[in-house]
Amino acid sequence: MKKFFSIILIITLATIITKNFPLDLSFAYVPASSTQKSKIINGKYVPKQSLNSSKTPENSNFAKISEKNSNYILPSVITSDSQWREAINYCIENLIDKVSFKIENFNEDIYNIKTLSFVNTSIQAQGSVQNETASITYTFDYKENYILNKAAKDSKYISKLTPDQLTLFNQIKSISGNIIKSGMTDFEKEKAIHDYIVLNSSYSKNITSDSYTIRNLITNKTGVCEAYAYTFQMLCSFAGIECEIITGVLTGEDHGWNLVKLDGQYYHIDVTSDDPVPDKEGRILYNYFNLTDEEMSKSHKWNTTDFPKCEASKYNYYIYNNLVVETPKQMQSLILNELNKGTKEIHFYVKNFIIKGTDEFDFCGKSKRPISSFNIMGNIGSDGAFMFSPTYR
C-alpha cells in the first residue's frame, strides 16, 4: 500500500522524528513559585489532547486567517487563543526560525501546541510563567520537502536553503526547464510533469525514512506517495501551476496526492497511483488524472471540509483527449483507429456500459496492423479507465 507522510510534530526540548501517533510528548517550562491556573508539575507538562494530523499547513483552518491579511504584523504579546494560532501559523508560513511571545492569562490547556495541525514542522518551546503571564520562545525546524517547495513558490525563501538543498533545488529547476516548453498550456505542463515523475520513478520496495523525500525520488528514483506529491507540487510551482497537497486515506491506508488549479477550477491528481506497481519501464496510467470529488471518492477518502471542492471535468485526461467511449461500437472504433497507427498503449474510459470479458475484443482481427496478443488493464466487469496493450506481429 502506498503510505503517506511521516508526520512530524515535536514539542520537547530535544527534537524527535517519528512516523507514528499518538506520542507521549512533554512541554517543559521553568515555572514561577506562584499558583497558576495551568497544571505545571515539577517543571513539566504532558498535554492531554491528541495530535490532529489530517491537515497540511496550507489547508489548516487558521492558515486561512493570515492569508487574508497581507498587512499582518507578528505580535509580541498574545492575549487570545486565536491570536496565538494565527501567530504560530504565520511563523511556519514564513519559515521563521525562532520567535518569543508574552502570553497573558496563560493556560496550557488553551495554549497547547498539540492542538495544532502541522506535518512539516518540528517545534521546540521553552520559557517561564509568572503571575499568569508566560514568556515562551518557540523554535521551528522545517522538513526539507516543505522548505524546497516554499522556495519554488517564492524565490525569497531560497536564502533559507542549505548549500546541499540549493544544489537539489537547482537540479529540480533544471528538470522543469527541460520538460516544460514554451507555448505549453497549463494542462500540457501538468501532463509533462506527471509523465516525467511516473517514467523516472518507482514506488519504494523497502521503505525507509528517505523514501518520503523529494531528494530520494530525484536522486535514487524511488519513493512513497509523500515524495511523489511534494515533487509534483514543486515542479508545478516552477511551471506556474497552482498546486497543493491533500491528505487522506486510500484503501484503508494513509495517503497523499495533489490538487491542481486550472482555469480557476480544482482537480484531484494522484501521481503515485498512476505509476504501475510493479514498475514497468515506459508505462504510464491516467486513472487519477484530474478527477472530481465524486470520482475520487470511489477509492480515496479525505476530510472534504478542509480542501477546495473539485467539481469540474473539462481537464480530466480522458474527457480532454476525447477518450471516453459510451458504447461498445465507440470502443471498437477507437481501438481499431489506434491499432492502425501502431499505438503501443491505448487508453480509454468506458462509460454507461461494462466490459464483460476479453472476448469483447475479437474485433481486433480487423486491424490493418495484425496483432498476436494483447493485455487489458482495468476492472473487467465494470466501467472506468482501461489500457489496451497490443503485441504486433
What key phrases describe this protein's structure?
five-stranded mixed beta sheet; 393 residues; five-stranded antiparallel beta sheet; alpha+beta; 26% helix; C8orf32 fold
Lay out the secondary structure.
Blueprint: E1 27-28, E2 30-31, E3 44-45, H1 63-68, E4 77-78, H2 81-93, E5 98-104, E6 121-130, E7 133-142, H3 144-153, H4 163-179, H5 186-199, E8 202-203, H6 214-219, E9 222-223, H7 225-239, E10 242-250, E11 253-262, E12 265-269, E13 289-291, H8 293-296, E14 300-301, H9 317-320, E15 324-325, H10 328-341, E16 346-350, E17 371-377, E18 384-392
The level of helicity is 25-40%
Number of helices: 10
What is the CATH fold-level name of the largest domain?
C8orf32 fold
- Spatial order of the strands in the main sheet? 2-6-7-5-4
Described by strand count, sense and barrel closure, the largest sheet is: 5 strands, mixed
CATH domain class name of the largest domain: Alpha Beta
Q: Report the principal-axis shape.
A: elongated
First and last CA, distance: 37 Å
Describe this entry's structure for a reader.
By secondary structure, the protein is of the alpha+beta class. It folds into three domains: 27-142, no CATH class; 145-319, C8orf32 fold, CATH 3.10.620; 322-392. Helices cover 26% and strands 23% of the residues. It contains ten helices and 18 strands. It has helices at 63-68, 81-93, 144-153, 163-179, 186-199, 214-219, 225-239, 293-296, 317-320, 328-341, and strands spanning 27-28, 30-31, 44-45, 77-78, 98-104, 121-130, 133-142, 202-203, 222-223, 242-250, 253-262, 265-269, 289-291, 300-301, 324-325, 346-350, 371-377, 384-392. The strands form five sheets. Strands 2-6-7-5-4 form a five-stranded mixed β-sheet. The longest helix is centred in the middle third of the chain and has 17 residues, at 163-179. It starts with 26 loop residues before the first strand and ends with a strand.
